[in-house]
């Protein structure tokens, strides 16, 4: 029997939330705060959650912490959301994480862009194939940040692994995305705009049907307003949301996205929802820059 992954595909064609990982005063993962933030997302209407994404500080977590974050998310979500667990690092680690996600009841895994100074086109296929073949029951979503990768390589991967069903595309070039998606097979995959709300309108115009979001941690309704406008083809309405979030996302993107997570946690801290601390190599905002983030968060309808 061939798995169709219909539920998983539908979940990718949505706001794909990347929850933050809140830390306690002693620097450890704070389970209670994490559960509270997850409930806030679920109560706000979010139905796709990605534990261990970049906004969750994936690369700063230990293997045990990544398992804890997976557990907390799956337990808290229950049947209210589809879970897309971030996996990565070396192949054995990524495979072990994917199998753990499967055992805990996740429906999909997102494979982080391989962190290696020498990534060949065929090696990219081999890396993802090893992970996808280890969990054939799960939907697999490559996270693509490599502008040099050819769309034909994704098609090659999916030929070998039919559970590769979606793509988180995060190259900041809408024309390149349009070409890549068509070379890989526009209708074959669910295309997720992996650079969040700022790129969602341009990527939707080229074939994306979902987008990732870190901002959603702060204001779920804002992200939902964006996707509803895009689904209906109302680009002027989508750009109204774009204008609303522009400064917040500019602050996140500044200095090579150095404050991508920092700004989100600062906004949450200003609302009393979690501590502002992030782990190196990220760093909390200096006192002089916190007021602007707090003002933006306070101005949104939460």
TrEMBL record:
Gene3D superfamilies according to UniProt: Aldolase class I
Active-site annotation: 143 (proton donor/acceptor), 168 (schiff-base intermediate with substrate)
Keyword list, A-Z: Lyase
SUPFAM superfamilies: Aldolase
Protein residues bound to pyruvate: 55
Record's keyword annotation contains Mitochondrion: no
One annotated GO molecular function: 4-hydroxy-tetrahydrodipicolinate synthase activity
Residues forming coiled coils: none
Pfam family, one: DHDPS
InterPro entries linked to this entry: Aldolase_TIM, DapA-like
Family: Belongs to the DapA family.
Protein name, per record: Dihydrodipicolinate synthase family protein
Species this chain originates from: Streptomyces spinoverrucosus
